[in-house]
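Cross-check.
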Amino acid sequence: MEPPGLEPKGGGATRLERALWHFCGFARPGRKQATCAKPQMATEAERGVLAGRRHAVLIATVAEFIASAQPVGSHQVASRRNLGIKAAMVRNMLAELEEAGYLQQPHTSAGRVPTDKAFRYYVDHLAASARIGFEDRTQIELHYSERVHSLEAMMRDTPKLLALLTGQAALVMAPRLESVELERVSFIRLRPREVLAVFVPKTGVVRNQLVRTERDHCQEELDRMARYLNEALGGSTLDQARRWIEEELRMERARYDRFVREALMLGEGALSAERPAELYVEGSAQALEQPEFSDPEKVRELMRALDDKTALLDLLERAVREQELTVSIGSENYDPHLADFAVVAAPYAGGSKPLGGLAVVGPVRMDYERVIPLVEYTARTLSRIFEH
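Predicted model, tokenized:
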């Protein structure tokens, strides 16, 4: 038997409503409920979740707040979310959830607003299992199926795509050259005892490094050194090349073979300076359309957060290290500039090699059910491109 008032208002049930019916133990409209005995319910601590109806009310409250950006009242939850629970009972549950730290009430006469704890609960129990929609998936596939002329263009366009799809600020960290396979190295004599080392990785991003040598070399000598290193280092990343050169310099041959020693020292000098990864940020204009940014102070906070490239790179590098999608909500963020924001970040790779990361940054009242699968699918698409 279905609880009264549970039938969907206006037709088909939403994904959220079906999830709430299932969790509360209700039958979907039009589907028979099992006649078996009611199972023993585990305690909240054992299950790591709130009791059934409190879970449903909290999920519904967070969903309403995400949709409206306004404090949520008991009548709003009872009338719009098809929980089969009267407004008076919802009101009591909202008070209990507030006491438990999931909700707060800006004013005594206003509805309630989810806290960071509530958003974390929402993400862990519902939004994290969301799947990307057909239209979003198709748009991403079409975007990357077009010919990409350079890695830089692809990196520049990726946050534009994410910002367009999510309505939030988006960022991407380009692959560190040190982690990309080397195609070849060339040495060009500029002037006496000054050489330009040119590294061409397989991705096509060229890196130049000025190296000062102990003695002058003619161009023919430099070409021989480049051939020697290319034969030894073909298919290596710059990190692997650096380690190989360091090991070879300790070998006996480098002590008595002047050519080998000078080639290795030239390679070592060219690889000694690491460059920070490139960061591309887009979508601040889209983010400012969110209701939260009608407050000028919130706008300044967002601009400060997006201007702090060092902190943003650190955020993405953590996603690369963890090798999985991460969601940081409000106070969970390490950077104090992001204390009022949420970050959904994911790494991308080339085969088994981690390369970089991408993220969406927006208000804590983010549409996680939509943003999480968009970030995840975009990262997987980039990984497929780099794998080939």
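The chain has three domains: 15-128, 133-176+277-387, 178-271. Residues 347 and 357 are 4 Å apart (CA to CA). Passed to J.P. for a second look.
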